[in-house]
Write a structure and sequence with these properties.
The protein contains 15 helices and 17 strands. With about 500 residues, it is of the alpha/beta class.
Length: about 500
């Protein structure tokens, strides 16, 4: 007697029969349940009973072996295609679809899909020797003790990878800035012994100010450093790191293999360890894509690298300034003249320890270049000075000439070097002459000329710190009368004749 026949006998006798599966589970799907005849005559006259077809019996749902995630297969497959993990998918199912099963069910289902799903096809980008290099930062550098705080800090890992040979240069730094980012490129080029034609980078602020796949706005300092080395920057499309997958793999290789779990006392020690690993292991490995040794491929690519410039790049600081009403911009408390017609407009400014350059914001054209000036000084180009001296300035110079020769020389120097901005300082020199006397100020102006600082500020401080002249009483002077005259005056007023 088989299972179906025994079930029919039990149902005919009114004895409930548990369905297939474990206790407490719902009935199986109709596809795997045993068919039951609903005819009035059973064909087995010995039983003579009827089979219940009560509609209140539970509706079949799924087989006990099927996953609770099966109805959401399409949603889960789509989420996996977007890079979502099992936790995120389970949370979305609970929030959006009322999913009642636990996270373990989703995790098992995801593992099953990933095991059977074909790998996504990716294109291997092949470049000519010396053609391309890829750069990137990795936040997972080793822990190094900071000398200032005595605590361990996470360092940043910079990686430059050549596109042809996969040779990498890995450098460690504490922090990042536009200048540090550019200096790391210089160090990498000099370690490689040459430059590439194109650098592929991400859209980080140190390199790209405004991302745009067609016309990105590069950081001015980074752009000039690459131009100094004859390199062109090629930023990736936003959200498309696969374009620089070679350096991404290089960053991950360093983070997982030599640096994971290690701590160093100094940054130099960490860099030495990384360089030793690079030479001993990274360069001697057989690359998985090329099936060749990295060092051997780099030996073939190195002659194709571009030559290094004779001098390193001279770094500068940059910013934007507004041209004031006097036609100058302020840079570190000094003032530098812009060409006529730029008052009230914004210009780009680059400066270092020697020069200050004013550039047009849209075209980058050089407007003016000045030597660095001390604090409070003005630098004006000769072409920007007025062709004729105003009559008021001529009158001031004439007053200075009448005050004294040294005062005239100081005022003339101020007018020649500061132009219209020096009018107030000439007024200040004349005010000092009125306050302290022309002779005293002329003596101070002579000292200023001898010391090479003919400025109003020096004259004022010189006179403030100058010791006052001692007072002396004269015994003989035309203004002092004889004592007999005072005696006769007193006698007359008192009426006491001798």
């Amino acid at each position: 007697m088989d299972r179906a026949t025994a079930r029919d006998y039990l149902l005919a006798a009114g004895i409930p029969v548990r369905g297939r599966g474990r206790p407490g589970e719902r009935a199986a799907k109709p596809a795997i349940s045993v068919p039951v005849s609903t005819d009035s005559l059973l064909g087995k006259s010995a039983i003579g009973g009827t089979v219940s077809t009560d509609a209140a019996s539970p509706a079949p749902t799924r087989a006990p072996s099927a996953s609770a995630c099966e109805p959401y297969r399409e949603l889960i497959v789509e989420a996996l295609g977007h890079g979502r993990n099992a936790v995120a998918i389970w949370q979305d199912l609970v929030d959006d679809h009322g999913f009642s099963a636990r996270y373990a069910s989703v995790r098992r289902f995801v593992l099953t899909l990933r095991g059977t799903a074909p790998a996504e096809a990716r294109v291997v980008i092949t470049t000519a020797p010396g053609e391309e290099g890829q750069v990137d930062y990795g936040d997972g550098g080793p822990m190094v003790r900071d000398r200032s705080t005595g605590k361990y800090r996470r360092t940043r890992l910079f990686v430059l990878t050549l596109g042809c040979s996969r040779k990498s240069v890995r450098l460690l730094v504490w922090r990042s800035s536009a200048q540090i980012w550019a200096e790391l490129h210089e160090r990498a080029f000099r370690r490689l012994g040459g430059t590439v034609r194109v650098i592929v980078l991400d859209n980080l602020k140190e390199g790209v100010l405004t991302p745009d796949i067609y016309d990105p706005a590069l950081n001015p300092l980074y752009r000039d450093v690459l131009a100094h080395y004859g390199v062109i920057a090629l930023p990736c499309r936003v959200g498309d790191p696969d374009r620089k997958g070679k350096v991404e793999a290089g960053v991950g290789h360093a983070q997982k293999t030599p640096l994971r779990g290690l701590r160093f006392e100094t940054l130099e020690e960490a860099q030495a360890y990384l360089d030793r690993w690079e030479t001993r292991w990274a360069d001697t490995r057989i690359h998985g894509t090329t099936k060749r040794q990295v060092a051997a491929m780099f030996a073939e690519e190195q002659p194709a690298l571009g030559p290094l410039p004779l001098e390193p790049f001279r770094y500068y600081r940059y910013g934007e300034r507004t041209v004031h009403l006097d036609g100058c911009v302020e840079v570190e408390a000094a003032y530098y003249g812009a060409p006529p017609g730029w008052i009230g407009q914004r210009v780009q400014v680059q400066w270092n320890d020697l020069h200050v350059r004013l550039l047009a914001p849209k075209t980058g054209q050089l407007l003016r270049e000045h030597l660095r000036a001390p604090r409070g000084w003005h630098r004006l180009h000769d072409d920007d000075r007025p062709a004729r001296t105003p009559s008021s300035t001529v009158a001031l110079l004439a007053r200075a000439t009448s005050a004294g020769p040294s005062i005239s020389a100081v005022c003339t120097y101020i007018h020649q070097h500061e132009g219209a901005a020096g009018v107030r300082r000439m007024l200040g020199v004349l005010a000092l002459a009125k306050k302290h006397g022309p002779a005293v100020v002329d003596e101070a102006a002579k000292a200023a000329l001898d010391l090479g600082v003919p400025t109003y500020r020096f004259l004022r401080r010189y006179l403030e710190r100058r010791l006052p002249a001692p007072l002396t009483l004269r015994q003989v002077d035309p203004l002092i009368r004889q004592l007999t005259l005072y005696r006769d005056l007193i006698d007359r007023k008192t009426g006491d004749p001798l």
